[in-house]
Amino acid sequence: MGVEVPRLVLRLREHFSSTDEEGKTSVKEPLQNKDSLDSSPPAQRVSPVEEKVLTRRTGWKFVYDVKKSKVIITEGEGGETWSHKVGELPPNVREVGEG
Fold first, then answer.
1. Helix (H, G, I), strand (E, B) or coil at 5
2. DSSP bridge pairs for 25
3. CA nearest 56: which of 32, 81, 80?
4. Which residue spans within the chain are E strands per DSSP?
5. Beta carbons of 90 and 97 less than 8 angstroms apart
6. Residue 13 CB neighbours (<10 A)
7. Span 7-56, pLDDT tens digits
8. Among 8, 14, 16, 95, which has the minimal tally of Cβ within 10 Å of its Cβ?
9. Closest CA to 87 of 69, 72, 71, 73
């Protein structure tokens, strides 16, 4: 199931994207991610190719309140908290989320 939250996409890009000397957009990794205990260590690099990170631990929280049909975002520890209304789920799906 997908949930569309355009503001979340915008905020993630604003917070974690940067532009390098060549004008390419890159993503900054928070320092605490390198020491994450729940992540396996990075694989050895075979050749010096451009690294593309597909998954990133941001420290942000995404809570889906199924009963109220909204998501609550907390932008990292001590960061801004905001909510976004999403479409209602059918009753049978809501029951699964509440169980």
1. coil
2. 19
3. 32
4. 17-19, 25-27, 61-65, 70-74, 81-85
5. no
6. 11
7. 999 998 888 876 555 555 555 555 555 555 555 666 666 665 566 666 77
8. 14
9. 69
Phi, psi dihedral angles at 64 (to 5 degrees): -100, 110
> What's the CA gap between 99 and 91, in Å, rounded?
12
Cβ neighbors of 59 (< 8 A, separation 6 or more) are: 30, 32, 76, 77
The Cα 14–Cα 87 span in angstroms is 25
- Give the long-range contacts of residues 64-73, CB within 8 A, separation 24 or more: 64/3, 64/97, 66/94, 66/97, 66/98, 67/94, 67/98, 71/3, 71/5, 71/8, 73/5, 73/8, 73/11
Residue for token pair 């909510």: 83
